[in-house]
Each structure stands twice: as C-alpha cells, then as structure tokens.
C-alpha cells in the first residue's frame, strides 16, 4: 500500500504553498453578511483558484444553500476556518437535490461534489469551526427518507481530509471513490438530541467530551464514510452514528481504517452491503485496527445480499474493544429487505464469496438487547433465524462460499461480564476443513474457543 507516500506529498504541498506565497494563487471566499446563499461566492473562488492555489474560508458561517460541484481542481489546499451550512428547511433541500446535476453516488446525490488531483481540505483546529452543518435532526424526528442528500463526494486522486467536523448530516456523510486519500482526525455527530438514555463519553481526539442520548425511534441516522476507492487510510475517527461508522463498499481496494471511537447505535465497521439484485461486487485488502465500539448493534459486520455475486477477500478486524454491543462479530451472505416481504428465492444459487477473513483480539461486553431502535418491520431488518439475545458471533453463511475465516483471541463477555456468551453458526454451511481453522466451535449454542490448526488449504493467506 502506498498511502504514506501520497500523504507526505500532500503535506509538502501544503507547506510549500504556505512558504512560497508568490508562486501560488490565494483566494478568500466572500461571505454575504445579509444571510443570503453563499454558493455563488464559493464557486467564484474555486473557479479563480482552480489550480496551484490556496483557498480560505474565513471564520464565519457560510450558507451553502445550493448543491455545488467543484471540479477540475489541481494542487489546491482548502482551509475551512469557517462553517458550511446546508438549508434548514426540508422542502428546500429536497427541491435542490431533485434538480441538481451533481453526480450521484452509490446511495444518494451529494450536496458537495469535489473532483480533482492533489486536493487537501483542512479544517480549523478550533472545535467550533471547520464544520459541515446538515440540520438532520428535523429529518430524523419525522422519519423522512425522501430525497435525502449525501453530504459530499470526494472523488480525488491524492487527497487529504483533516480536522473536519460533520454535525447532524441529513443522511450519508462522505463518499470516497478516489485514489490515494488520507483522512485524519474526523469528527461526526449524527446522534439525535432527543432520547431515553444518556451516554456521556470522553472524546478520543483533541476535542472536549461529547454528550449524546440514545433515541429508540430514529429512522437510521446516517453513516460516516462510504469507501469505494483505492489506497485510502482513515486515521483518527470519533463519531456517533446510527448506521455504519465505516462502510467499505463495491470497488474498494487497499483500505485501512484505524484509531477510532464509534458510539451511539452504530451498525459497525462494515463491509458492504454487496451483491444487491444479483450484482457482481468486489472488495479486497481491508484492515480495521484499534477501534472502540460503544453501544453498537455490531462491532464488525459483513453484509451481502441473497443471490449476490463477486467476492470479498483479505479482510481483517483487529484490536477491537466492545462496550454494550448487540453482536460482536457478524457475517451474513443472506441479507434481504424484511420490510418488503419474505426472503426472495436464490434462483441462481449464487452468493458473494468471502475468503481470508480474520478477527483478532476482540474484547469487551455485549448489551442487554439484541437489536436497537431502528426497526421498522417485523421481523426487524437485522433479524436472522435463532436470534433471541445478544450474541458474541453470528455466521449466517451461504453453504460452500466462505473460506478461511478465523477468529483468535476473542474475549467477548455478557453485560454482567460472564464468559457464557452464545453464537449462531450452522456447521453444514462450512466448506471442508473450515472448522479446523475457524477458531471456535461452529454451532447454535455457547461460544467455545478452539485451537486453529495449521493448514495448506488453497487460497489461505495472511496479508495484514
């Protein structure tokens, strides 16, 4: 992997532009003091300073009330010393996102679409600034999922996102389909303000403690990152999400996500979803390392749809701390929309294949409930047969399509700190010889660790 080389180059770019002001253009984004839309001012600054430039947002609140495409950027450093505010009115956002020409992402259309080469966006060191304010609370309160925007797509080759704060995004956060991207010290507040349970935690990065409340009727507060590009590192993440903190999706390759805290009712550190509507999707070479998952539905999750195709290979989760999670380790190759009826038949008898999937050094506790407050169907969206209490491990496999899964140093305990946790795993779905290297007894019953035997199985490899 080559993240560090490109990150060093981006740092040198930022330093050189500061040290040699005569060799670069400089633009400061104008701010309308009357509260009008600043989108035209943003576009003018990025057009004037499209290449070899430094662009600065002053320490004020900018109204980005129109979706924006910032394309053709080359060797540009953006200093976000102020805040970027989306419209507060739901209907205004819906009308704008319905008519924008911004390029759609996998799940939605972004409010900001950024494209170029050698682009850095650096937020303020002051926690009050360097923010993207989405005003998502009002959407969540009424469960509105119509014409929701993604916050931003960063489709950049050689990119840096640093010290940015995402506050109450309407839906999905950042989509990263580019190459050679480094993300550092990223903050996400996607937890509702109203709830039934206080959860106060200390911020793991440089900012203050952050107090949130669990809200059981929320309709999926948004995820943090969708990663579909190549050579991407996320180093330093603190967030409260109602969906995935990190979601690695189709096309992703050579991904590292490390040193993070994920609170609220997160759906975990996820691969997928993959293979919807029989699609041929691929993900390769992913490492999740040194994370704390607090109050999450899942710690580590893999999700592919019934009848999918393609593969996910060489995925590692390691050094994961769990606090009151519903399921520590979860794999399903049989996902479907429960709110749209029963599981559809797998007519072609296919599945997104998984191989070389490793879980190392998991420790912590399960919660008291196997689900969260985002159920909008019966059974719940996350139900699998036999699920009746929090589980340390669930392997919901499609027979014969999952190879070289291994679990080692797993110390997941109950809410009362007992070792008597349980698992769901059908041994008839394992490939020949898989039990020898799985690391626990595949059964619907108690978790029993097993020694991992040396193997010469084809395709068995350790890359991370």
UniProtKB/TrEMBL annotation:
<dbReference type="InterPro" id="IPR000743">
    <property type="entry name" value="Glyco_hydro_28"/>
</dbReference>
<dbReference type="GO" id="GO:0071555">
    <property type="term" value="P:cell wall organization"/>
</dbReference>
<dbReference type="GO" id="GO:0004650">
    <property type="term" value="F:polygalacturonase activity"/>
</dbReference>
<comment type="similarity">
    <text>Belongs to the glycosyl hydrolase 28 family.</text>
</comment>
<keyword id="KW-0325">Glycoprotein</keyword>
<dbReference type="GO" id="GO:0005975">
    <property type="term" value="P:carbohydrate metabolic process"/>
</dbReference>
<dbReference type="InterPro" id="IPR012334">
    <property type="entry name" value="Pectin_lyas_fold"/>
</dbReference>
<dbReference type="InterPro" id="IPR011050">
    <property type="entry name" value="Pectin_lyase_fold/virulence"/>
</dbReference>
<keyword id="KW-0378">Hydrolase</keyword>
<keyword id="KW-0961">Cell wall biogenesis/degradation</keyword>
<feature type="signal peptide">
    <location>
        <begin position="1"/>
        <end position="19"/>
    </location>
</feature>
<protein>
    <recommendedName>
        <fullName>galacturonan 1,4-alpha-galacturonidase</fullName>
        <ecNumber>3.2.1.67</ecNumber>
    </recommendedName>
</protein>
<keyword id="KW-0732">Signal</keyword>
<dbReference type="GO" id="GO:0005576">
    <property type="term" value="C:extracellular region"/>
</dbReference>
<dbReference type="GO" id="GO:0047911">
    <property type="term" value="F:galacturan 1,4-alpha-galacturonidase activity"/>
</dbReference>
<keyword id="KW-1015">Disulfide bond</keyword>
<keyword id="KW-0326">Glycosidase</keyword>
<comment type="function">
    <text>Specific in hydrolyzing the terminal glycosidic bond of polygalacturonic acid and oligogalacturonates.</text>
</comment>
<dbReference type="Pfam" id="PF00295">
    <property type="entry name" value="Glyco_hydro_28"/>
</dbReference>
<keyword id="KW-0964">Secreted</keyword>
<keyword id="KW-0677">Repeat</keyword>
